[in-house]
Amino acid sequence: IPQISYASTAPELSDPGRYEFFSRVVPPDSYQAQAMVAVVRALGWSYVSTLASEGNYGESGVEAFVHSSREAGGLCIAQSIKIPREPKPGEFAKVIGRLMETSTARGVVLFANEDDIRRVLEAATLANLSGHFSWVGSDSWGAKMAPVQGLEDAADGAITILPKRASVPG
């Protein structure tokens, strides 16, 4: 059965051997990861951390980012942190603590769902680290307000990626 997706970005869906009848109207996450590497390099960063929601979207996105950064060269990944699907209380404080272990890697590349992004920003705020990190967020953050509402200080200066969109009249 042919399928056309308006939002599925998982890179494995590009495998024609497994998904012969699948097509999409948005680019896969591997393109997004390449754009994020280009942003990081344009900012002159050479040492960043990655943060991913556990699961296909987050882990595949970070994997694509790491792969693209290796191909581009000149970029070192300080650490890759995974946010569990069902985080325990205090988990996000631990995430911020882990990011601070390599505090010179102030750039953080996020492939995370909206709720995880919000909770990371809340934890940064509670740790009095608003403005310490520079975030590069994937399309799950994009132009959405929900992850940052009330946490603008922690998100200030974030750069987010979003595929080009246009309205089609009629």
From TrEMBL:
Keywords: Disulfide bond, Glycoprotein, Membrane, Receptor, Transmembrane, Transmembrane helix. Pfam families: ANF_receptor. It is a multi-pass membrane protein. Its main location: membrane. The keyword Disulfide bond applies. GO terms for cellular component: membrane. Signal peptide: none annotated. One of its GO terms (molecular function) is G protein-coupled receptor activity. Belongs to the G-protein coupled receptor 3 family. This is GRM6 protein. It comes from Malurus elegans (Red-winged fairywren). The gene is Grm6_1.
